[in-house]
Amino acid sequence: xxxxxxxxxxxxxxxxxxxxxxxxxxxxxxxxxxxxxxxxxxxxxxxxxxxxxxxxxxxxxxxxxxxxxxxxxxxxxxxxxxxxxxxxxxxxxxxxxxxxxxxxxxxxxxxxxx
Amino acid sequence: xxxxxxxxxxxxxxxxxxxxxxxxxxxxxxxxxxxxxxxxxxxxxxxxxxxxxxxxxxxxxxxxxxxxxxxxxxxxxxxxxxxxxxxxxxxxxxxxxxxxxxxxxxxxxxxxxxxxxxxxxxxxxxxxxxxxxxxxxxxxxxxxxxxxxxxxxxxxxxxxxxxxxxxxxxxxxxxxxxxxxxxxxxxxxxxxxxxxxxxxxxxxxxxxxxxxxxxxxxxxxxxxxxxxxxxxxxxxxxxxxxxxxxxxxxxxxxxxxxxxxxxxxxxxxxxxxxxxxxxxxxxxxxxxxxxxxxxxxxxxxxxxxxxxxxxxxxxxxxxxxxxxxxxxxxxxxxxxxxxxxxxxxxxxxxxxxxxxxxxxxxxxxxxxxxxxxxxxxxxxxxxxxxxxxxxxxxxxxxxxxxxxxxxxxxxxxxxxxxxxxxxxxxxxxxxxxxxxxxxxxxxxxxxxxxxxxxxxxxxxxxxxxxxxxxxxxxxxxxxxxxxxxxxxxxxxxxxxxxxxxxxxxxxxxxxxxxxxxxxxxxxxxxxxxxxxxxxxxxxxxxxxxxxxxxxxxxxxxxxxxxxxxxxxxxxxxxxxxxxxxxxxxxxxxxxxxxxxxxxxxxxxxxxxxxxxxxxxxxxxxxxxxxxxxxxxxxxxxxxxxxxxxxxxxxxxxxxxxxxxxxxxxxxxxxxxxxxxxxxxxxxxxxxxxxxxxxxxxxxxxxxxxxxxxxxxxxxxxxxxxxxxxxxxxxxxxxxxxxxxxxxxxxxxxxxxxxxxxxxxxxxxxxxxxxxxxxxxxxxxxxxxxxxxxxxxxxxxxxxxxxxxxxxxxxxxxxxxxxxxxxxxxxxxxxxxxxxxxxxxxxxxxxxxxxxxxxxxxxxxxxxxxxxxxxxxxxxxxxxxxxxxxxxx
Lengths: 114, 888
Prior knowledge:
Radius of gyration of chain B: 37 Å
Low-confidence stretches of chain B: 46-64, 492-498
Number of strands of chain B: 23
Radius of gyration of chain A: 16 Å
Strand content of chain B: 15-25%
Helix content of chain A: 55-70%
Distance between the termini of chain B: 55 Å
Helix content of chain B: 40-55%
Largest sheet of chain A: 3 strands, antiparallel
Oligomer: heterodimer
Structural class of chain B: alpha+beta
Order of helices and strands of chain A: HHEHHEEH
Mean pLDDT of chain A: 78
Largest interface: A-B, 37 and 36 residues
């Protein structure tokens, strides 16, 4: 996370963080750090999720019932909160993903009108 | 559920806000700590080692059913292992090749041993209840000093034993399979035939499908039955499973047979070679000897088996059979000595029986030991490679531990990787095993027509199990080692602080490889030297320079045309290219002999000669000794026109006239009253049959031309021109003049090839496996040295900067490896000395403790060690000090 690296980082599009978190949790329950790490890794380092936006987003998702949180002992003996996607979370993810596809498609069309 | 979850959360937040705040703080702390761990890992300069794998972030999920968790883990571990292997293709290929070669070599040996030693002949019902019969003559031993046990009965013996057995066991006999030609209309099919007694199929529990097996009308041994049963294999291969084959007439050995049935299943006889066609014993085409049919005389060519009643151990049968056997009239000079002979029972598998095994079979058991050693070396090598790999991944492992992966899980992942490697190596192993098995079968048992050539089920199963087990075994050491990685130490320290236990472990693996390589190479050198010594044994003839045109004795009277043809051929061949001499002999030297009764005037008996049977003799033409290279020690060889003279071998001279000059002595050859035959020459001793034997005293008598039915043209040839130039000319000449006769053209060295085979086989097997072991060891030493050198780039840079020369650095690096290899050599010598007796009986002229062989093997292994470590050392010597020092 050197300075040169952060300059090439993109800002997340507004509203996509929830979707990315839900997408990440589809494959397996993770703790907050793991979620951030996964988003960063799978984007090839393009997105960096700051704690300041990650945990509020998780709170939001907990609040709407899209994820559940559970405290569990991590293998090193540390306690960490693991988030699991719920059935309604999956539905929401599908809806958000569809919206996103439409939006991206629209943007792409505009951009390609040279 | 999710609604409820959201509700619960909201309620909790509302009711106990303090608790939620504490939780948030704890969550934030955890997040920061994880980031710190990662930052530190990256900062300590791991070149890609700290790359995080998604599997690192796997949480504990105790809510999942355990089976799903397990499947999940396995899926992740496999993915992790595959990614890891793809990332390092060089390592992966090296391990796959090493394991594949090691396991494949064993599969090749297994595929031979399995059929020879363990797998009962296919198609036999309850094979444990079938016993082979043997005769044990306690008054004699074999040439190699083993009990004199043989499986050959003549028909009168077999009938007597069968009739005496009664309820203690039902017996059958057969004549082992041989090649023949089956004529089906226009077609000529090469087949293997076997002559069997009528009860054969019933005793073995083989059924017919379709048709019938031999029945009551085939019981009269003196009445030809002219019916055959074919194997299911032949029916499928050459008759396309055509049901109309029943009742069809075919021709074999100039007789017409009717096919009456097909055996069910895979049954192809009891011998190693498969049988395609079964004929009744009645039809055995053996001519009468002096008017006596074979089944009333002494043709000992029947093998016998017995089916024991359920629960019987066969002792009752053996007792009755022995009594019946001893009651029989002895046939003088032939078969077993009745009084000292016992009937023994052995397992259905010939190789498990009490008979002395042919050396090839014995050697194949040594091959198992040898290939196992190769596998051990491969295993040690892969363990070394995995260790090296684990070392270069220490930081990665430390990070993963810091991230919360459990040590058990980590071990599991590493083991998954090595098991995966093992599983992948089966591809290589199956290829090597299939190919090597074929080569080995041809090499060890060249005459055998295998029932199922190539890879069979048991061998494939063997490969699968062996590869995975070996992969697991090789992975165990590094995996257990990885458990001991300390999080803090590994993350904090630089690459040159190599754990000393780890490097000790790698050295130990090198010692093991070096030691085992030495053992194999000692074996190789011993067999190569045996082979050389055997080849150099003086047998009295120049083996390499002799070829024969043998007129095989036919039935009936001498054929004047044949004798004339032979003499003409001999004369013509004198000018054939590559032929430097031609002689005639009544028997081909070392390929047959006959006895002649002799007497010495004034002596009643001749000590040292087997009584009653005369001495070994051969009638030869003038020039014979020159052609064969047999040395005349005193006196002269035969000259044209010689009669009434003889040449005796040196040992014969010593037996007949001890302490006196044999030249000029009188011998009576033939019946009493015959005139003196004068000894005119003494030749060196000559062997009669074997390369390794005590030569019998032998008598040479002169002859002109060919004496009759049995005649051999002996050619002195140039061994380098034989196959390309001389042999075609000789064959052409023979077919032109002797085309109508039964003639065989062969080089003596080819005729004796079988005798050299044990040593040749030993030399080939040990050399092949030895080279394989050496290659694998070389790879092992190279990779370990290369790794160690890479780890010490920094140190090397410092040394060069301080003025160390290339020579200094080479010495430094090579000396370290050499210590391990030399220690390995010492251990290897100890092992070779300890296990030498396992091959002692198979050697010739050298003892397994031969110091020169052992020293040679150790030298080769040490030289290999030097070469393998010199390359990486050379690279270390050319390190750019500036670069090396700036890598930290």
